[in-house]
Specification:
With 128 residues, the protein is mostly helical. It is 68% helix and 0% strand. It has 5 helices and no strands.
Length: 128
């Protein structure tokens, strides 16, 4: 277990950084900012699906204080926060499956669903 709230904060922020890098590269490909490479895209989608399971563990009690953008609402509305985190994981898993198809519309929809999960949680639980 984490020794200090700061360790939990660092853990979840590290996971989010890796998620943002992988998801951002996928977005660059879908937006035509770089060539679409199906193998790379699928590998990144697998990464996001695996990484999506990590941050939740870092939201331990007491880690609303410190170097974090997480709002206290995370702990006040824990059941809703938990369900949004699960929905994100489900969307990321579906994106990893879609990425193994050649259906660009399916991939784009699954990517959009995952992005909505990111934003939907940030809008409510993250400082702006
Ligand atoms: C990203 C990123 C987010 C989400 C969000 C999606 O690439 O860093 O936080 O996508 O902007 O709407």
């Amino acid at each position: 277990n984490f020794e200090e709230p700061a360790d939990a904060i660092k853990y979840r922020q590290s996971a989010f950084s890796l998620i943002a890098y992988n998801f951002g590269d996928m977005g660059a490909m879908l937006k035509g900012k770089k060539p679409f490479d199906a193998a790379v895209f699928s590998s990144r989608a697998d990464n996001v699906a695996a990484l999506s399971k990590l941050p939740h563990e870092g939201f331990i009690a007491g880690s609303d204080k410190g170097d974090t953008e997480a709002l206290a609402k995370v702990w006040h509305d824990k059941a809703d926060f938990d369900s949004k985190m699960t929905a994100f994981q489900d969307n990321a898993a579906a994106l990893a499956v879609a990425a193994k198809s050649t259906d660009q519309n399916l991939i784009k929809q699954a990517f959009a669903n995952t992005g909505k999960s990111c934003k939907g949680c940030h809008d409510v639980y993250k400082k702006d």
